[in-house]
Design brief:
Blueprint (H helix, E strand, L loop, with lengths): L6 E4 L5 H12 L3 E5 L4 H15 L3 E4 L6 H15 L4 E4 L14 H29 L2 E6 L12 H20 L5 E8 L2 E2 L1 H14 L3 H9 L9 E2 H11 L11 E4 L7
Parallel strand pairs: 1-2, 1-4, 2-3, 4-5, 5-6, 6-9, 7-8
C-alpha cells in the first residue's frame, strides 16, 4: 500500500491525532501540508522531521480555520506547490463543555466554523481538481460524538453529526469520479491534551489516576483502553489507498466499542 506521488493536506496537524495522520501519510509516500497553531519553532521541528524522516515534501500552512478565505487559499497553495492535491484530511476541531443555556454563542459559532464549515470550504476547493484528475480521497475526523451525544457538548456534537452528513453528501456527488469521502470516528484518544487533564480531574473529584482513567475518561469505552493516534492514522492511510476505493460515504467507528451500546 503506497501513496507515493500523492499529495495531502491535514488540517489541525501540528500535534496529536492530526500530526500522527500527517506522519502516517508521509510514511506511505505522500507529500504533506500540515496546518494548525502553536509555537513557530515546534511547528518547524515537526515539519522538517516529516520531510527528513520520510523523504517527502512537507509544507506548513498557518491558515485560520475560522476564515473561509484562508481555508480556500490553503488548498490553492497546496495545489500550486505540489502540483496536485489528492488527499484532504479535515481534522481541525475544538471542544467546549457547558450547559446549553450558558453556552457562549461566540464559542458555538467558532466550533461550528472550525469543525464543520472549514471542512465544507476545503472540500469545495479541493473537489474540482480531484474530479478532473479522476482520483481523490477526503477523510474527516469525526468522533464517537458523531453517532451518540454527551451532555454539555451541544456545539461539538452538532458539528460532528453535521460533518457526517456533509461527508455522505459529498460521497454521492463524486462517486463516479474516482473520489471517495469518509469519516473516521475515534473514541477517547490518548494524547498529551488528555494526559494533562488527569491531575486536575484527580484533584477536583478526589480520585486516583486509575479511577480518573477508568471511571471518568474510559467509562464509555468497553475495552477500557484508549485509542492511539497511530491507530487512527493507520485507518486514515488505508482509506486513502487504492485498496479502499469502494469505501465511500462511510463513518467508521474506532471507539473501543463505545457506540455498540
Amino acid at each position: 500500500m503506497t501513496l507515493k506521488s500523492r499529495s495531502a493536506i491535514v488540517t489541525g496537524s501540528t500535534s496529536g491525532i492530526g500530526l500522527a495522520i500527517a506522519r502516517g501519510l508521509a510514511q506511505a509516500g505522500a507529500n504533506v501540508m500540515i496546518n494548525g497553531f502553536g509555537e513557530a519553532d515546534a511547528i518547524e521541528n515537526e515539519r522538517s522531521a516529516i520531510a527528513k524522516d520520510f523523504a517527502v515534501k512537507a509544507l506548513y500552512s498557518p491558515a485560520d480555520m475560522t476564515k473561509p478565505q484562508d481555508v480556500r487559499a490553503m488548498v490553492a497553495q497546496a495545489e500550486a506547490t505540489f502540483g496536485t492535491l489528492d488527499i484532504l484530511v479535515n481534522n481541525a476541531g475544538i471542544q467546549h463543555v457547558e450547559p446549553i443555556e450558558n453556552f457562549p454563542p461566540e464559542i458555538w459559532d467558532k466550533i461550528i466554523a472550525i469543525t464543520l464549515s472549514a471542512a465544507f470550504h476545503a472540500i469545495a476547493a479541493a473537489v474540482p481538481g480531484m474530479k478532473r484528475r479522476k482520483w481523490g480521497r477526503i477523510v474527516s475526523t469525526a468522533s464517537a460524538h458523531s453517532m451518540v451525544a454527551s451532555p454539555f457538548k451541544s456545539a461539538y456534537v452538532s458539528a460532528k453529526h453535521g460533518l457526517v452528513g456533509l461527508t455522505k453528501t459529498v460521497a454521492l456527488e463524486v462517486a463516479t469520479f474516482g473520489v471517495t469521502a469518509n469519516c473516521v470516528s475515534p473514541g477517547y484518544v490518548w494524547t498529551p491534551l488528555v494526559e494533562k487533564q488527569i491531575p486536575d480531574t484527580m484533584k477536583a473529584r478526589n480520585l486516583t489516576r486509575e479511577q480518573v482513567i477508568n471511571d471518568v475518561l474510559l467509562d464509555a469505552q468497553p475495552t477500557k483502553q484508549f485509542v492511539t493516534s497511530e491507530q487512527v492514522a493507520s485507518l486514515v492511510v488505508y482509506l486513502c489507498s487504492d485498496e479502499a476505493s469502494q469505501i465511500t460515504g462511510a463513518n467508521i467507528a474506532m471507539d473501543g466499542g463505545w457506540t455498540a451500546h
